[in-house]
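worker-03 picked up job from queue 'complexes'. Input manifest follows; two sequence lines, order preserved.
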Amino acid sequence: MSNHERQGDETPAIDPALEQGPQTSEHGTSGPLRPTDELSAAERQALIASMSPEDAERVPELHEVEVPPELREQIEEAMGRYPQLRSASIPALWAVQRHYGWCSPEGIRQAAAVMGVSPAYLQSVASFYDLFRLTPTGRNRILVCHNISCWMRGADDLLKRFCEATGADHHEAEHNGANSPDGEFFVQGFECLGACDIAPMASINQHYYGPIELDEVETVIDRLRRGEDPLPEKDIRKRTLAGGADAPEVETNADA
Amino acid sequence: MPERRLLFRNLDEPGLRTLDVYKRRGGYRALERAIRELEPDQIISEIEESGLRGRGGAGFSMGKKGSFLPRGDMPKYLCCNADESEPGTFKDRELMFKNPHGLIEGIVIAAIAVGAQHAFIFIRGEYWDVADVLDAAVREAYDAGLVGERILGSNHSVQLVVHRGAGAYICGEETALLDSLEGKRGNPRLKPPFPAVQGLYGGPTLINNVETLMNVPHIIRHGAEWYKRLGTEQSTGTKVVSVSGHVQRPGNYEIELGIPAREIIFGLAGGPPPGRRVKVWFPGGSSAPVLTEEELDLPYSFEAMAEAGSMLGSGAIIVGDDTVSVPELALRTARFYHHESCGKCSPCREGTNWTVKMLERVVRGEATPMDLDIIASVQENIIGNCLCVLGDAMAMPVGSMVRKFRHEFEEVIERARAAHGGPLDAAPDDVPPVPLGVHA
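worker-03 finished. Artifact:
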């Protein structure tokens, strides 16, 4: 008998009239769940008895779940990096997202099996963080910063233009992000991405570009469709210090 | 007054992110000195003597923080806070991307000083390219024996892991960072115990910002006496300021602390576009109470900003010119904190939510002047009532905007009233009011 099945013989004896579960009231009519304050002692006992830990989804065993070998390897490698393996939760979810394009229930279950935690645990972690997607996501991810500095420099219009160019729903994009109808793009208004020096900017497939002009948006979208670098000349990696090359340096003892 | 570059030295030199070039520019000499010439305690006292204050926002003395960690052989940890998420702040991104070894050297010295054998760089997940650069540099440093077991042949060992976050402002709060690093949802913890005593995995933990740690090699190499000569008495050293918003040359500038804010905003960043004036500015990220045009001549230092009722925070200056609507700015600010509130403490979770709703009413022209008092009182009831300061970080700037620009909020409300053709709150209601709350 697997753990998952209730072991009726071992559960403590309870009033047979209540064995039908928590939805059954004293009068035998089932109804919606009520606040526990309003339950009788017997109802409360029945409720507690019905909430057996075995009802929760267990930690999946590795032999029950088929995990793609490279995914398993990445997660195990992450587990080895930390003094406590649970620290690998976020790296494991990153690995799932890389593999499937989003944190799919199946991927989360696989990661849970490798890590020896429950899928619900990883789900709860994934739902906390903005970068983990719990729904399928367009192939190209465009996060448009709409925080203070970018807003001052026209981020709202930029986000709208990205939505127009891709067909993503603007209202959804402003909040939780939206996919384009063709599934090619995911557009989201995002909180400060830490690149106010190139405002208004966007993180496109995890690279930062800016300042993006409104009339560059079509070009960006076309290039992404062709699998090209969307805006090579505005890649933040090419940006040099704002103060130029010859600002004075502090004198150190080594200079003396 | 121009820049004064210390951390920015050679920053744009191609190849500085490789070990080879970094060493040629004097890199890892401080680590050698820390290992060969100094005892761990001496490293801490040198840092304390230098007056180095945390560059992440709170401005606490790094040396003091380090000295709070207990001695002894228990497992200790060091976390470098690279979760740079404070709106307006982008200094650590440029520092880490261009000089990863400068950070690694600082981390290893600090870890040796406090006896931490495990160190982590908690970098925000959005900085994917930067994390790639760090990963490569850490590998190089391991291969060269500068990180890992028996560093430079000594008895010191430090393991260093680059940990990528996944998008949550709250993880920049040190105890939420620890929870996140332990693989949990990033909720802040009750303090005390402070992380110096009970931090990561329950062990003593030193948590410092990227820029703070990058100052350490310079202090160890050139001495506290030399470092103290930079800046002011209470704000020693240089500071990287991130200037953004309505300025002509937004970007990171390294300055000596204590120069007038006007020099930074106008002299370095070029000021607002021609013909426009500075109306409002945040001196230290979006969590700092805002300042006005009249306060541009204040010295830019921890103490002067605190005296003006604001804070130097992360050193992020956001400038708004006279085209900015302050009520809309307040709304934009509040929305951010509402989105990022982790939900653990009610004053923050509910307070940010209601502040957004009320500010939306103001901006839509549906508010009354009384709403401004309610907004102000909500802010007062958030401050100091939560486990961490995320709620305060909304309450302080929003409260300051309502206080300093109340006339502008009232104008917005008055315009809406005029457009309606009558007092907003006098419209007779079909339904008699239902008494609620304490008056019921």
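worker-03 released lock.
Chain B touches chain A through 79 residues (CB under 8 Å).
The radius of gyration of chain B is 24 Å.
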